[in-house]
Structures are given as C-alpha cells and as structure tokens.
Design a protein that fits this description.
There is one protein chain. The protein is mostly beta strands and 84 residues long. The chain contains no helices and six strands. The two termini are 28 Å apart.
Length: 84
C-alpha cells in the first residue's frame, strides 16, 4: 500500500540514526527524535520539493503513520524548514 499525499503535503520516511560506522565502531544512541526524513512522494501542489530530498521539518507539525512496519510522516510543504 502506498501513501498518496493530497494538495501541498509531503510523505517522508524517517531515517534511523546510524548505530555503527562502516568500520564497525559502535555509536551512542541519541534520546531525542530525528528531525529529518527522506521524501517518498509529494502532493500535486508541492513546488519546491521532490522525491529523494532529505528534509528538516517542524517536529510538532507532522502526522506520524506506521505502514507495513515503516515509519512515515505527513508534513505540509510550508512546514519543511530546509533540505540537506
């Protein structure tokens, strides 16, 4: 099942923080929530963002959805603060 955003909404997949480096060094785990995600799809009215963009968003302006074991967020384009 795929999420199809309406109007100026964006569907993004929350990235999990790295737990270890490529060389095998274990990293500490952060207690705070991730504030960035990768765009999976955009609504028809979204002008400045596209699939694959990594975004930083207003944390309290999202709707969280878990679908098939994957965490997604729905966020309005105006609540996206920056791209990485």
């Amino acid at each position: 099942m795929a999420l199809k955003p309406l109007k100026d909404y964006v569907v993004a997949k929350i990235e999990k923080p790295l737990e270890k480096t490529e060389s095998g060094i274990l990293l500490g785990t952060a207690k705070e929530k991730q504030a960035y995600a990768v765009i999976e799809s955009t609504g028809p009215d979204v002008k400045g963002l596209k699939k694959g963009d990594k975004i930083i968003f207003k944390e309290f302006q999202t709707t969280e959805v878990k679908l098939d074991g994957t965490d997604y967020i729905l966020v309005k384009e105006e609540d996206v603060l920056a791209t990485l």
